[in-house]
Amino acid sequence: MIHRNSLIASVFLSALLVSCVSSPPERPDDICKIFKEKKSWYKAAMKTEKRWKLPPYVLMAFFHQESSFQAKIRPEREKLLGFIPWFRPSSSVGYSQALKNTWEDYQDETGNSRAKRTDFADSADFAGWYASKGFYQGFSPTDARSLYLAYHEGYGGFKKKTYRKKQWLINVADRVQARSTMYQKQYWGCAKELKKKRLFFF
Length: 202
What we know:
This is Transglycosylase. InterPro entries: Lysozyme-like_dom_sf, SLT_4. It comes from SAR86 cluster bacterium BACL1 MAG-120920-bin57. It holds the Pfam family SLT_4. By secondary structure, this protein is mainly alpha-helical. It has a single domain (about 25-200), classed as Lysozyme, CATH 1.10.530. It has eight helices and two strands. The protein has a two-stranded antiparallel ribbon with strand order 1-2. The longest helix has about 35 residues, at about 165-200. It is globular and about 45 Å long.
């Protein structure tokens, strides 16, 4: 009986932890509220900034656009004959919506072979790694618009300006920049408080 109760408690606790980790934040439009609610996300964002120089507000603007902070989200399946579930349009998964091949490149280059696209910390590190390739080419760490266009088109595509034929993508990149700017202003107002409380978080 004791063993059975312990097993039930363990299963319940595991389910609760998974729910806490994968659920989107309650206030996705406020980066301060996000980091106060998701303390492990704040830690991951700080680690990414330190390692790759990608500001947390740019990172979070990317993830808001790509996945709405949903850990296991995938592109919807296409419909065969209008109603039969078919293949997905791409292999993207998780917070960063990283493609399988690009994720494997990240794993090979960083040695982070156990990284998962459904893990926030791994996704944040991936985004920082990808953005850093642009920094070497002269991209500004705060230029969320250009970084997002390159994130979507690849740096080769960005150089060829392939995005110019995709007005919808330009509009999305503008929204990412606007959100990044909003997050940046919010972050300036709570960065000291978050840093001060970090010692108590971990």
